Amino acid sequence: MEEYIVSARKYRPMTFDSVVGQKALTTTLKNAVKSGKLAHAYLFCGPRGVGKTTCARIFAKAINCMNPTAEGEACGECESCKAFAEQRSYNIFELDAASNNSVEHIKSLMEQTRIPPQVGKYKVFIIDEVHMLSSAAFNAFLKTLEEPPAHVIFILATTEKHKILPTILSR
Fold first, then answer.
1. Which of helix, strand or coil describes residue 138?
2. Residue 75 contacts by C-beta under 8 Å, 6 or more apart in sequence?
3. SS3 95
4. What CATH number does the domain located at 23-169 have?
5. pLDDT tens, residue by residue, 25-37
6. How many CA atoms lie within 13 A of 170 on its CB side?
7. Rounded percentage of the chain residues whose pLDDT exceeds 70
8. Cα separation of 27 and 166, whole Å?
9. pLDDT grade for 1, boundaries at 50, 70 and 90
10. Is 59 exposed, middle or buried (0-12, 13-18, 19+ CB in 10 A)?
11. Helices vs strands, H then E, count in the chain
12. N or C: which end of the chain has fewer CB within 10 A?
C-alpha cells in the first residue's frame, strides 16, 4: 500500500516556474540565484496560503544547487537537490515557530549555524510563523541575525509582520 501524503504536500510546487500568482517574487529570487548576490536574511510576509513557505523551500533548494539552470532554477539532479527531495538535507533547516517558539528551540537552531554546510554552499534556516517566537527567543536570535556566519542564510516567513520585533525587522 502506498504511503498517504496530504494533497497540500503532494501537489506543492517544486520549482519557481510552477508557483502560481507570485511572478514578481519568483523572478526576484531566480535573479538572486543567477547572480549569486544573496542577502543573509529574507522576510516573506503575506496572508495564509500565498506560498511563503513553498517559495522559501524552493529558494533554499536553488541556492544550494550545485548546477543551477541558466534561469536560476535548481537542477534536481545534483546531490544537494536529491538530498532535499528525499528530505535528508543537512543544509536546510525548517522551524515551525508556532509550536517551537521557546528560547531553547532557537538556541539549538543557532548552534547549527556554527557548523559549515556538508554539501552545497549555504546552510539555510527557514523559520515559519516567525512572529510566534517569544520575546526571549527573538532576543536570542538577534545576535546571530546581526552577525551571521558567511555560510548562513535565514528565511523568515510570517502572516503578521507587525508582531516581529523592530530590531529583527531592521536587520
1. helix
2. 65, 66, 67, 68, 69, 81
3. strand
4. 3.40.50.300
5. 999 999 999 999 9
6. 5
7. 99
8. 28
9. low
10. buried
11. 7, 4
12. N
